[in-house]
Amino acid sequence: xxxxxxQSIFETYRIFEHDFRKAPFILDATQIKKATAHFxxxxxxxxxxxxxxxxxxSRPKVxxxxxxxxxxxxxxIYALVQGEGYIDIPExxxxxxxxxxxxxxxxxxxxIGNSEMQHLDFAYASSxxxxxxxxxxxxxxxxxxxxxxxFEFYAGTHQQLIVTESVQTEVDAGYEGRNQIVLIEAKxxxxxxxxxxxxxxxxxQWQIHTKKKVNVLFFEKQRDIYSLWVFGFADANDYNSIExxxxxxxxxxxx
Length: 255
What we know:
By secondary structure, the protein is an alpha+beta fold. It has helices spanning about 5-10, 30-35, 45-50, 60-65, 115-125, 130-135, 195-210; strands spanning about 25-30, 70-75, 75-80, 85-90, 95-100, 140-145, 150-155, 160-165, 170-175, 180-185, 195, 215-220, 225-235, 240-255.
């Protein structure tokens, strides 16, 4: 969890003395490298590794003890924010629905490997994504890394706006229909929670680029069950206004 490098960073820049009730603490990659230069392991010095905290459990001890999470706000610049940075992925209690694939042949290549992307592609090819969202017009149009335009938002316990610009985002798949954009974050690891940023940043990014409604989904395949959660934001400018709108799980069967 990189506890020691982050302890060194906090001590070097006296972050323990910062009043997080007023504002987040801003830290850049150069500062992180300087404070961790004496560590021998690459993983203890690599900025990308140190700042990757995608679940509550992946946070270093100083973050947990001080109720903090980390957000990139520009290329190489980060905000340490106090408050809740994660959203629970609730277990879907209802039995899986049997879904009949719209394909009239079996996809042999989808059986090779076990990646998040291939499971998501199979769900789309079977028309499960379209059926779940009740939108037959959806087509794959977004994939891979892009950089956000400038936007502002509130997050955590303080009331100071956070300004974000040119942060790299990545969605596992994005679909456009006649009236909506659908962005999907896919996981294959059984995580019980995820950092809201992975849903919020692409949501804000595409809100700026389109006038269509933007929906964000969390997708997971475990064994032969496909689970889907739809999340929304009650206030687009509030990182913590995320709410679960719909969830369902399926078992796909060929015709």
